[in-house]
From TrEMBL:
Domain of life where this protein originates: Bacteria
InterPro entries: Thymidylate_synthase_ThyX, Thymidylate_synthase_ThyX_sf
GO molecular function: flavin adenine dinucleotide binding; NADPH binding; thymidylate synthase (FAD) activity; thymidylate synthase activity
PROSITE patterns listed in its UniProt record: THYX
Taxonomic lineage from the root: Bacteria, Pseudomonadati, Thermodesulfobacteriota, Syntrophobacteria, Syntrophobacterales
Organism: Desulforhabdus amnigena
UniProt record, GO biological process: dTMP biosynthetic process
Pfam families: Thy1
Protein name stated in the entry: FAD-dependent thymidylate synthase
Length: 335
């Protein structure tokens, strides 16, 4: 069928995984959403796909990730050690990264004198590069430990510096969540959602710039062969069976909308046939065109999203999304 109507939907993906293999698989899903090439995913395709993104500088897709390092004092540290106390190291890091304070989250680790430092892969890549010219021993320290946990994404440092030596661990999802529930300001976990909505709504979603986005691309997806899918307008909901994905009645209102969509899709196909590329032919596509968008963010960002969008003043479809996001956080006791 050339034209299909679908309802707005929300699919929670859970927390960005700490495990490298699982994290690469999630990034591949996000990246392939943009090109609608999910059919190319295989059991071992994630690593090469993500390394390709990194090589070409497509680092925005790597934002759908989270690496949280737990940094603690060495138990064997002697009073005469030249290694600074852990709190001194933390303050030093915060000072050096002050101009980049949106990149990382710092939090205390319960029952420990240490601290946690979290960031997505893009922020860690950028921060290591930032520190390399300003504080090489810190850059070496982080690169060494990131390489321990994420050897596919972070190479071992080429040079060795007399840098800080602390016990460094990788905080798993349940540990991140435990800290968040004890201290809501810690903001360590990253939560990922998939939205199926119209492009008009995605324009509103991406205004929440503390979140990260990878969206189905009308530049590269050719709908000429796939057919055109549009989001169901509210006024057609009484005539639509969501389970069957079809209309229960062909009243004049339904017929009008189908005719509109068929006309637009016909114009799109004609533009492709006369040689226009999808990135140009898309100019005729409607605001109601179905789009898939992967969205990642920390608790503070999602809390703000819900506060603004679960409102009577919000568009009905983005309010539905915000309510579904709220339900997910209620299910994990964050509301």
């Amino acid at each position: 069928m050339a034209i299909e109507f679908v309802k707005t939907r929300v699919f929670p993906q859970g927390m960005a995984p700490a495990d490298e293999r699982q994290a690469l698989e999630l990034i591949e899903i996000c990246g392939r959403t943009a090109y609608k090439s999910e059919d190319k995913i295989t059991e071992d395709s994630a690593r090469s796909f993500v390394l390709m993104l990194k090589k070409h500088g497509h680092l925005s897709v790597l934002e759908h990730s989270n690496a949280v390092l737990g940094i603690e004092e060495n138990v064997c540290r002697s009073p005469a050690s030249s290694i600074p106390p852990i709190e001194t190291f933390r303050r030093s890091l915060v000072d050096r990264l002050e101009v980049r304070n949106g990149y990382h989250r710092f939090a205390s680790i319960p029952s420990s004198t240490g601290f946690a430092m979290g960031g997505n892969y893009r922020s860690w890549i950028d921060t290591v590069g930032y520190l390399r010219d300003r504080e090489p021993r810190y850059a070496c320290f982080f690169q060494k430990h990131l390489n321990r946990f994420y050897p596919n994404l972070f190479e071992a440092p080429e040079t060795s510096f007399e840098g800080p030596e602390y016990r460094v661990s990788l905080l798993r999802e349940e540990e991140q969540m435990g800290i968040l529930k004890q201290d809501p300001d810690s903001d360590l976990p990253v939560f990922v959602f998939k939205f199926i909505c119209d492009r008009g709504i995605t324009h509103e979603v991406v205004r929440h710039r503390v979140l990260s986005f990878t969206q189905e691309s009308t530049r590269y997806v050719n709908y000429g062969n796939k057919g055109m899918t549009v989001i169901l307008p509210e006024e057609l909901e009484p005539f639509f069976d969501a389970q069957k994905g079809s209309f229960t009645a062909r009243n004049p209102l339904v017929q009008m909308w189908i005719q509109r969509a068929e006309t637009i899709f016909k114009w799109y196909q004609e533009d492709l046939k006369r040689g226009l590329k999808p990135q140009t032919a898309r100019d005729i596509l409607p605001n109601l065109l179905k789009s898939e968008i992967m969205v990642s963010g920390r608790w503070s960002g999602w809390k703000h999203f819900i506060a603004l969008r679960d409102s009577k003043q919000a568009h009905p479809r983005i309010r539905f999304i915000a309510q579904e996001v709220r339900k997910y956080f209620e299910s994990i006791d964050l509301f």
